[in-house]
Each structure stands twice: as structure tokens, then as C-alpha cells.
């Protein structure tokens, strides 16, 4: 059974999404409760899987990954085992930053980063030759308009 998230929990989530390195004392002050119950709430949100983890957001371009592209993959077979095998293979490719299984004509879309076009082209050759891959279409990104690694909070869905 999933517990109801109240206004304090929403405020905790909003604050942590904005700054995952905030101290519990500062967090408790911002959400208007004392530190011990704030920490209990954060731990409960973590244990329930609502808070999946914490990480640093890195600038790929400053680390030498100047190329970002999407690869749309169409598989030969969409049997459960084949889908799972492809998803497992994706985990082993370091240039794939994110992957989604889709409905419709494309089975998977991969967000990829690479230091240059040649590296990405070599990856596409490997991807195209992977078991069960029928075809791959790629699109190089030109400019990113939005990069919000956040979930809309209550009342922010518009």
C-alpha cells in the first residue's frame, strides 16, 4: 500500500530536487518542521523508492563529449526475451546516456553522447550489427532548449 504524500512531503521533494546536497537542518527549516521528523520523512521517501537516489549532474561538453544524438532502433523481433536482451546490451554501451522502450514503429530510442562524429559513427556500426537489430535511424542534436532533470511538483503540471 502506498501512503499518501502530504504537503510537507511535497515540500521536501521540491527542495531536494532543487538541491540534493542540502543539509537536513536547512531542509527542515525550509519545510517548517524540526530536523528529526524531517530526516524520518526523507528516509521514508527513500525507502519507498520515491527518492531513487542522489547524483551530480555533469556538463558533458565540458568533459569532452561534444556530440549528442538520438538513435531510434527497430528490432527484428519484439518477443519479450529479445526486448530484454537488447535492453541488457544497452546497459553495456557507455555512450548511451538514456534509453526508453517505445510503442509504435520504433522499439527503443537511445540518447547518446560522444566526443566526436567518428566515435558516434563507430558506435552506430556496432549498434546496427547487434543481434536482433533491423535498422537504426539517427538524429544529431543541434541545440538543447530544455534540460529539466526534475519531476513537476503538485500544482506545477502546466
Counting DSSP E segments of at least 2 residues, the number of strands comes to 4
Radius of gyration, CA atoms, in whole angstroms: 20 Å
Uncertain residue ranges: none
Question: Whole-Å distance between the termini?
Answer: 29 Å
CATH third-level topology of the largest domain? Alpha-Beta Plaits
> What is the count of structural domains?
2
Shape: elongated
Main sheet strand line-up: 2-3-1-4
Portion of residues in beta strands equals 15-25%
Using the coordinates above, name the CATH class of the largest domain: Alpha Beta
CATH superfamily of the largest domain: Lrp/AsnC effector binding domain/regulation of amino acid metabolism (RAM) domain
Q: State the secondary-structure class.
A: alpha+beta
Mean pLDDT, to the nearest integer, reads 93
CATH architecture of the largest domain: 2-Layer Sandwich
The DSSP helix count reads 5
- What profile does the largest beta sheet have? 4 strands, antiparallel
Q: Helicity range of the residues?
A: 25-40%
**H/E element string?**
HHHEHEEHE
Protein name: Transcriptional regulator, AsnC family
Pfam families: AsnC_trans_reg (PF01037), HTH_24 (PF13412)
GO cellular component, one term: cytosol
Keywords: DNA-binding, Transcription, Transcription regulation
Amino acid at each position: 500500500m502506498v501512503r499518501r504524500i502530504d504537503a510537507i512531503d511535497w515540500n521536501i521533494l521540491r527542495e531536494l530536487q532543487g538541491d540534493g546536497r542540502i543539509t537536513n537542518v536547512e531542509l527542515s527549516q525550509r519545510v517548517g518542521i524540526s530536523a528529526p521528523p524531517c530526516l524520518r520523512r526523507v528516509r521514508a521517501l527513500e525507502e519507498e523508492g520515491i527518492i531513487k537516489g542522489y547524483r551530480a549532474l555533469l556538463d558533458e561538453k565540458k568533459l569532452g563529449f561534444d556530440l549528442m544524438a538520438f538513435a531510434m532502433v527497430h528490432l527484428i523481433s519484439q518477443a519479450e526475451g529479445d526486448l530484454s536482451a537488447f535492453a541488457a546490451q544497452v546497459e553495456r554501451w557507455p555512450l548511451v546516456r538514456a534509453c526508453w522502450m517505445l510503442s509504435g514503429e520504433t522499439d527503443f530510442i537511445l540518447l547518446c553522447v560522444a566526443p566526436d562524429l567518428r566515435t558516434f559513427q563507430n558506435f552506430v556500426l556496432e549498434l546496427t550489427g547487434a543481434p536482433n537489430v533491423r535498422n537504426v535511424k539517427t538524429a544529431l542534436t543541434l541545440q538543447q532548449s530544455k534540460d529539466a532533470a526534475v519531476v513537476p511538483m503538485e500544482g506545477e503540471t502546466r
